[in-house]
Amino acid sequence: MATVVDWDLLLQAASVSVAVGLGVLIVGAIAVASSLRADDARRVGATAGAAVYSGVTVVCVLALAGAVATGIYLLTQ
Amino acid sequence: MSAGDVIVVLVVIVALGFDFTNGFHDTANAMATTIATGALRPKIAVAVAAVLNFVGAFISLEVAATVAGGIVNADAITPTVVLGGLIGAITWNLGTWWFGLPSSSSHALIGGVVGATLVAAGGSAIDVQGILSKVLVPAVLSPLLAGLIAAAGVFLVYRIIRRAVAEQAERRFRWAQVASSSMVALAHGTNDAQKTMGVISLALIANGSIAGGDDFSVPTWVVVSCAVAIALGTYAGGWRIMRTLGTKVVEVRPPQGFGSEAVAATVILASSHVGYPLSTTQVVSGAVTGSGVGRPGAQVDWGMARRIVTGWVLTLPAAAATAGIVYAVIELFGNGAVGAVVVSVALAVGCVLLWRANRAARVAPEESVAEHPISGPAPAQTPAAVTA
Question: What is the ipTM of this complex?
Fold first, then answer.
């Protein structure tokens, strides 16, 4: 079995999948949570809080856009 | 036109037919969860998937050059073997579609080629080690991996948004879900359209119509026709499988849909990048099931999951057996093109009969939408013209 399956390659694919998969989901969830909190902060007039949460949202969305761009790049390789 | 040319023409037609079935069989991979949650209307979702599958077919041609490599001895491949393999794969694809089972089109194709080769050239032409490493081990590990990551990831997602109003959060996840589903559709077009390109190229090389070896390149007309076929198939929408994956395994909510599709896209891309081939269908099915495990309060229908896994186990041997029989029937008619014409006509008749049966017991696109979709763009209530 050891000669049939390249376990190093398999482990590499699995570890990248775990890291990136969980990372994308966590970043996506933070983006949603922070955008909702930004709305709440705006509603009660907490301008500074709203700005911080909006900033977090923007960073997360940019990170997700980067992940999509990387995915498309990998498809072309 | 020689008998060989006739067989190659039939291979091209049947291969494009397989590509079409591949498209509508696998539309669910990308869009079942998106449609189920109401993130996109059914017809819009399949249109987006069709466009992305079409675009994906042009992105890379690497897989097309290596299809069937390492599975069977290349010297044993003839246009007739390819034809038998394709008919075996189409038959299995249509059968699993009829029962709404998301099985792997790639495994059906591999099984078909293996079965036809086995009958044509014997067991020595089969690379058992290649099948084990390229098909069987990934088939077992990839859905498990995707399921575990999706379960953990979706659990974390729900922890992070636990203080938010569920409906508001779900509305925002809608866009993330559309993006992650689109990535899966693009990856599917890139991988699966190329397999048909590879199969057609194999037949053309075997017939001497194009050069093989270092001078090999996929003809432009092959690329364009395969892209069109898979896009049309995707747009037809395999609503039976869509209904299974989107509503019957587990009720999918937008955070789950985003989670399962994002994990599936990640696993597929990461594995492809390191050269580890996977079935898109199995990865997505595993991720959708895992997302049900990860969402608090969700109930996975393990009976349905078992049916799907049974379909996976049967795919390779069933497609191989069908292809082997088809090849044997072709050979009964001798070395000319008569046998190939007979089985191709039989396939066409079978497809027409199945199409008529499907019209009588059609699954409408609206049946792929979950009971409680997110509010927003409601699924279209118009009578469905598409009945696949």
Answer: 0.91
